[in-house]
Amino acid sequence: MAELTPLETTSASSGNQPQMGGGFPVIGYWAEKTLDLKGGLLWKTLLHKSACLSCAWGTGGQKGGFQNEDEENLQRCAKSVEAIASELMEPIPNHFFERYPILELQKLSSLEADRLGRLSFPVIKRANSDRYERITWTEVYEIVTKAFQKSPECLASYSSGRSSNEAAYLLQLLMRSLGSNNLADCSDLCHAPSTVGLKQMFGSGTSMVSLADLKQSDCIVMIGSNTPANHPRLMNELIKLRDRGGKVIIINPLIEVGLVKFASPAYPIKSFLKGSDISSHYIQPISGSDTAVFLGIQKALIENNLVNYDFLKQYTEDWEAVIEQVRSLDWLEILNTCGVSREEIEIAAKMIGTSQRVIFAWAMGITQHSNAVDNVFSIANTALLTGNAGKEGAGTMPIRGHSNVQGFGSMGVTIILKEEIMQALEKLLQRPLSRVQGYDTRALIEASDRHQIDTLLCLGGNIYAANPDSTQSKRALGNIETVIYISTKPNLGHFHGLAKENTLILPVFTRFENPHKTTTESGNNFVRLNDEGTSHLSQREGTELISEVEFLTELADRLHGDDVVNWRSLQDTKYIRQLIAKTIPSYEKIGEIDHSNQEFTIANRIFHTPKFPTTSGKAHMFVTPLPKLDLPTLSSFDIPEHTKAIVLVLGTGRSYSQHNTVVYKDGDYYRGMPHRNCILMNRTDGDRAGFREHQTVTVKGNAGKMEEVEIIYGQIREGSALMFYPEVNAIFSAPIDERCGTPAFKRVPVAVYSADSAPI
Ligand SMILES: Nc1nc2c(c(=O)[nH]1)N[C@H]1C(S)=C(S)[C@@H](COP(=O)(O)OP(=O)(O)OC[C@H]3O[C@@H](n4cnc5c(=O)[nH]c(N)nc54)[C@H](O)[C@@H]3O)O[C@H]1N2
Ligand SMILES: Nc1nc2c(c(=O)[nH]1)N[C@H]1C(S)=C(S)[C@@H](COP(=O)(O)OP(=O)(O)OC[C@H]3O[C@@H](n4cnc5c(=O)[nH]c(N)nc54)[C@H](O)[C@@H]3O)O[C@H]1N2
Ligand code: SF4
Ligand SMILES: [Mo]
Q1: Alpha carbons 338 and 290: distance in angstroms, whole number
Q2: What is the reported pLDDT for 251?
Q3: Is the pLDDT of residue 10 over 70?
Q4: Cα-flanking dihedrals φ and ψ of residue 98, to 5°?
Q5: Which end of the chain has less Cβ packing within 10 Å, N or C?
Q6: pLDDT at 265
Q7: DSSP secondary structure string, 252-276?
Q8: Pairing relation of β-strands 678-681 and 720-724?
Q9: Ligand 1 pocket: which of 53, 54, 55, 190 to mutate (most atoms <8 Å of CB)?
């Protein structure tokens, strides 16, 4: 991919960073990708009636490639182009795997692995071989069928949210029909705390607001989300909200330039040239202290008489305990924990308390902590204290990640299945299903590490690189007899996450190539219908891609033979939709979608009246303890106290140009980071440790270290730092929030020291 420098400089400031997000680099990306030789194919794909592959904002679908669910046009962003362009690559040549042994492939970076091209024929790496080799589908089915004839507790799956609802439904039905509940999913590493927390509070684990609600709100609180990079079309809603006089409060230890000012290509005149103001108020707390920020906001709401007691009394439970706790907390304790001034907290509280319709939105800055569920509780408590739940234009909105990750949860790919669905599945399969607690992603890695898993089927994703402590992941996957990767593109996991006996990589069509219709669910609970498509690879000699649905139904048929479910007939996805309609509550409308072509909002998810699907009909409030944010000392990293060194808290996450473990472009222009081996930190911390900007340092975690890391100074909270995953996953193991299994990717203590580290 060519660099974008000529255009990028247009909006760059004199320093390292640009003055706003979006703008010319985005258009530059569009122009570069859509005008090159493949442009025709790219445009055809963009116009295909299917939901965008990238994020869960869910642009596209039956209403056309560029529309959102409100039929507004020009809603595809550069991230969509980036994702499609990556899938439109040429196939990996026939002899590639024969030529390169695994040891060579292990030297590739994430970006290089992705650029190898599309996977287009099945390959296997056997224990006695040093490389992958091509095999036939007949042999694939023989090996995989045998691998699944093991005891159920030793079978597991992992999935990532790009596949369809239909594939997700089949995956869980197959696993459960075999007696296994080991349905690990990328959401375990992502929004599980939101699902777990919101279910307990409101009886429903997803966003309670729709796109239409966003258009009515007059205040949005955006917490721990790098929206301009990861959910770009949501920026349009923030711009419109500011235009109508609303307020945007940002809570993030890092000043993300696009959250201050953003130039949206959707509004060429109004926004694109000069940029639109986004944040009305920007709070930069200590990493991991968000619960304290919200306790502070709650205290200020109480003291300023901005609590809606009528609402609490009528529509909530246990509100007294929450009020009592907040009253008893000392201001100093709150302020010391979050490192934010009382004045800043008061400003936020007054904005929230005096607005009519407030939406609270959050992403990984909230969920990837060991107290993540408390973070979610504290946000939702604040919404309830001000009566901002169960009315139009207001409520809680987890901003979901992968384009169909939420659909996976709805389809039952979860280790916490509603009893109602379990019973419906038992009725469908006409046999009792296992109630043994399944493994989530972290538990699956731990179980594999203990040699308790024999067979792992990965429907997409990159379980190796997405997990913390890459050494452990590699070792754990290496204990599994058979690992089957169903993928569109090669990634680091295929080369490092090798099984003990057989590792298979099976190539599948992407969403816009499937020979049948599929559906997906956006983060706003909107179900999209994706049309049939064709693949640019199908005409190529020697390519043998199949659909995920074809693979799963064929495997199920071979495993179950004559069964009450005619698995093979499910290759026609409309029959899967019939089963979904029968067994998944609130998804009934999917049963009509093949006739009606009507995309729909899932029933009982969006709340416009304060009646919630809990046993009492009321929202349940929870007391949230102040987080304990102790840090290890330098000596616990085996570094003498008096060296040029410092302990910082790493927030690990995405650069502007990557999709999860897949890197599309080196560096991060918007954060002024020229390449991936950088650590972004505050100048004061650098000065304190005796560092210079751009010098290289070692960054050491509790499981390893990275060397030659370049220091970049940026507007990040003192004590906090930022590095990119998946590379950084090599250096730490992370505690989890026991209630949801999600690792604390956003609060990783590290020691940073320089090679010339002489005592000072
Ligand atoms: N282009 C693109 N789009 C994507 C993805 C992608 O990789 N690339 N990934 C998709 C997926 S699966 C997901 S889950 C989402 C992820 O979307 P995000 O959650 O936006 O992504 P992250 O990079 O994890 O970082 C989130 C933000 O949290 C902030 N943060 C870190 N620690 C804290 C903290 O303690 N408190 C607070 N308040 N903030 C903190 C960081 O500074 C950063 O701005 O995006 C989805 N969309
Ligand atoms: N340190 C750190 N680690 C993190 C995070 C973090 O913020 N910090 N974030 C976590 C989060 S939020 C998430 S969601 C996980 C992401 O973890 P995963 O979802 O496991 O990883 P991805 O990188 O999204 O997976 C990319 C691969 O999916 C495959 N793929 C793409 N499209 C399709 C398709 O249509 N079908 C199939 N079968 N395969 C497809 C391709 O082969 C591609 O290489 O990472 C987590 N890990
Ligand atoms: S905002 Fe998300 S869903 Fe919409 S076009 Fe961009 S990446 Fe795709
Ligand atoms: Mo995610």
Answers
A1: 7
A2: 98
A3: no
A4: -65, -35
A5: C
A6: 79
A7: -SB--HHHHEEE-TTSIIIIITT-E
A8: antiparallel
A9: 55
Q: Which amino acid, 115?
A: R
- What does the pLDDT read at residue 47? 81
Contacts of 579 (CB under 8 A, 6+ apart): 169, 173, 428, 565, 570
Q: How far is CA 79 from the centre of its chain?
A: 14
- Cα gap 603→612, rounded to integer Å: 13
Name the residue with the closest Cα to ligand 3, atom 2: 55
| 648's tokens | 């910082």
Q: Is 387 exposed, middle or buried (0-12, 13-18, 19+ CB in 10 A)?
A: buried
| Rounded CA separation 665/115 (Å) | 11
* 251 and 288 Cβ atoms separated by less than 8 Å: no
pLDDT band at 14 (very low <50, low <70, confident <90, very high): very low
Show the tokens assigned to 401.
């990640």
For 317, other C-beta atoms within 10 Å of its C-beta total: 17
Q: Which residues line ligand 1 (CB under 6 A)?
A: 54-55, 79, 190, 223-226, 229-230, 251-254, 256, 287-288, 290, 363-365, 401-402, 651, 653-654, 658-660, 746
Domains of the chain: residue spans and CATH: 96-187+405-598 (3.40.50.740), 192-400 (3.40.228.10), 634-757 (2.40.40.20)
The span from the CA of 720 to the CA of 648, in Å, is 6
Q: Residue 446 above 60 pLDDT?
A: yes
Calculate what percentage of the chain has a pLDDT beyond 90. Answer: 85
Residue holding tokens 């409309």? 574
Give the pLDDT score at 3: 29
Residue nearest to atom 12 of ligand 2 (CA): 190
Cα separation, 248 vs 468, whole angstroms? 33
Inter-CA distances, 456 with 150, 211, 409, 491, Å? 11, 37, 19, 17
Token pair belonging to 220: 């949005």
Q: Does residue 752 sit in helix, strand or coil? A: strand
Parallel, antiparallel, or unpaired for β 662-663 and 678-681? Answer: unpaired
Q: Is the CB of residue 297 less than 8 Å from the CB of residue 345?
A: yes
Nearest one of 746, 745, 747, 725 to 677, comparing CA atoms: 725
pLDDT confidence band for 109 (50 / 70 / 90): very high
Q: What region, left, alpha or beta, does residue 335 occupy, with left being phi > 0 and alpha being psi -120 to 50 degrees?
A: alpha
The predicted model gives 500-510 an average pLDDT of 98
Phi, psi of 321 (to 5 degrees): -65, -35
Q: For helices 419-429 and 573-583, what crossing angle results, to 10°?
A: 130
Distance of CA 66 to the CA centre of its chain: 22
Question: Minimum-distance ligand to the CA of 441?
Answer: 2
Bridge partners (DSSP) listed for residue 722: 651, 680
For residues 50-60, give the mean pLDDT: 90
| Residues comprising the chain, all counted | 760
487 lines ligand 2 (CB under 6 A): yes
Per-chain mean pLDDT for the chain: 93
The amino acid at 723:
M
Q: Whose CA is nearest to atom 4 of ligand 1?
A: 230
C-alpha distances (whole Å) from 81 to each of 105, 161, 251, 526 are 27, 18, 29, 22
Residue 422 has a CB neighbour count (10 Å cut-off) of 18
For residue 755, the model assigns a pLDDT of 74
581-591 residue pLDDT tens: 999 999 999 99
Q: Which ligand has the minimum distance to the alpha carbon of residue 369? A: 1
Ligand 2: distance of its center to the CA of 103 in Å?
A: 23
Do 160 and 460 meet the contact criterion of CB atoms below 8 Å apart? yes
